[in-house]
Design a protein that fits this description.
This protein is α/β, with parallel strands linked by helices and 488 residues long. It has 10 helices and 22 strands.
């Protein structure tokens, strides 16, 4: 017996319902896509963005289809999102596993006593060398049998001596203005730790990290209840830096950390190296000076630094200007071959940025209307569009040799890097490079929605009104809308 419902069989009802549902589904899919674009456009109406110049583009990660755009081809100041282009070019030019080698050579082979009359140190542009790695290098040298060094010659001739890009002026002592060189330590920066004394009127306690003789400390600060504040000034002297600490710190306060850049990167590096040699039982006498490695020098040790994928991660996660610029100058030279290359070019900004552009164009990225001046984005002469950034990221993403390392190196929203305290509503679903200068904020990277849709996006803002925090919040709200379906 066939069950009837108002003259219709269940079979007719099910077939009719299926047809109606299919029609509704076909209608609903484009509407959902349109709703996302509408919500994203609404996010651009945030008060902090009104009157600002915007360049915005979101595309489907797989197909490249545009999801949302606003003046996507407008070239604006990108700030540190410029580092994406540098990172992509570096991964392409060197490969993810490449390691810069810092070579240690001597005027003659090591004798039975372990004494080296002159130790030559040749830099290759490894900007990731920290005090810890210089200790490791010194330990490896001690393991070779070295017990005494009578003089050290530091060779950073692989790069030119232009330490700061001319378009960055004025140069400050802030850590983000670390000098560029082929032989460096601690990203060209150091830490000043200031602790209040036990009682009002006592001088504060000042410690420098690393504690090397390169620094001369002048402590004029006191423990006081006044509101004069704390000042830490770096004054470049001949071959060293004087650190002048003045003002006051209230009793009972936690130690204050102040980061500064050095004036003389080569002298600083030499001081760090000598300290680590002594820490490993190697006696250091004589002078530490700049020079070049003679052709007759004998290699004692080739110290391999971090692999390129790790360096790129440091650049992007922590937005290191100094490391990004070092990659640019290193790109001008290219990877070092196994045999000596006396005619190998010197790394400069001009030739390095030309190589960055050449590699991007070879990947099919159009640079029409763009201006790429430096590798870090510190220069306000840079001009980049959202489309250029998105095209470069998609080109790298499609290349297995580049894509995984690029995405893995990006800050994760609400988790780490420069996005650790941002875009909490999109926590762990956005990996992107931030960009910040006075009047400029930017964000570019990859996002995955809660529904599993993957996107590549870039959002540049120039000339926002109000505080930088409000503009960043507006950008974060945009990517949160992209990730969360019911975001306002």
């Amino acid at each position: 017996m066939r069950l009837q419902l108002n003259g219709l069989s269940w079979r007719h009802l099910i077939v009719g319902f299926a047809a109606t549902f299919a029609a509704a589904l076909c209608f609903a899919l484009p509407v959902a896509a349109e709703d996302l674009a509408v919500r994203l456009e609404r996010a651009l109406a945030a008060p902090a963005l009104q009157g600002a110049s915007l360049s915005v583009l979101v595309v489907d990660r797989e197909t490249g289809a545009t999801v949302h755009a606003r003046s996507a081809d407008r070239a604006l100041v990108p700030a540190s999102t410029q580092k994406l282009l540098t990172a992509i070019a570096a991964l392409d030019g060197f490969g993810a596993g490449h390691r810069f080698e810092t070579r240690l050579l001597a005027d003659r082979p090591l004798d039975a006593t372990g004494r080296l009359e002159t130790l030559f140190v040749e830099g290759a542009g490894d900007a990731s060398l920290t005090s810890e790695q210089w200790w490791r290098l010194a330990a490896d040298l001690a393991a070779k049998g070295v017990s005494r060094v009578d003089g050290i010659v530091l060779d950073d001739s692989g790069f030119d001596r232009e330490r700061w890009h001319p378009s960055w002026a004025p140069i400050t002592s802030r850590a983000y203005h670390g000098p560029i060189g082929a032989l460096t330590a601690n990203y060209g920066a150091f830490r000043v730790i200031v602790t209040p004394g036990d009682a009002v009127g006592d001088p504060v306690v000042v410690r420098i990290d690393p504690p090397v003789p390169y620094f001369e400390v002048v402590n004029r600060a006191q423990t006081a209840r006044s509101r004069r504040g704390l000042r830490v000034e770096r004054k470049g002297l001949s071959g060293r830096d004087q650190i002048v600490v003045s003002g006051s710190v209230r009793p009972g306060r936690k130690p204050a950390d102040v980061w500064r850049s050095v004036s003389h990167p080569l002298a600083y590096t030499g001081s760090v190296l000598a300290s680590q040699l002594r820490a490993n039982g190697i006696e250091v006498t004589g002078t530490i000076q700049a020079g070049t490695v003679p052709p007759s020098a004998v290699e004692v040790l080739a110290f391999a630094g971090h692999p390129m994928h790790h360096i790129v991660s440091l650049v992007l996660k922590h937005s290191s200007n100094m490391m990004a610029e070092s990659l640019v100058k290193a790109l001008a030279r290219g990877p070092r071959g196994k045999d000596p290359e006396p005619s190998r070019p010197v790394g400069t900004w001009l030739t390095g940025m030309a190589e960055v552009q050449r590699r991007l164009e070879a990947m099919g990225v159009s640079l029409e209307g763009a201006s790429l001046v430096d590798g870090s984005g510190l220069s306000r002469d840079n001009r980049v569009s959202a489309r250029l950034l998105v095209d470069a990221m998609r080109a790298a993403d499609r290349d297995f040799a580049l894509g995984p390392d690029l995405v893995g190196a990006l800050p994760i929203a609400g988790v780490d890097g420069t996005l650790r305290k941002r875009a909490e509503g999109a926590r762990a679903q956005v990996r992107a490079k931030t960009g910040t200068l006075n009047g400029v904020t930017a964000l570019a990277g990859f996002a995955v929605s809660q529904a599993g849709d993957a996107y590549v996006f870039a959002f540049l803002v120039n000339g926002y009104r109000g505080g930088a925090g409000r503009a960043m919040d507006a950008v974060d709200a945009y990517v949160e809308t992209l990730v969360v379906p019911d975001a306002p």
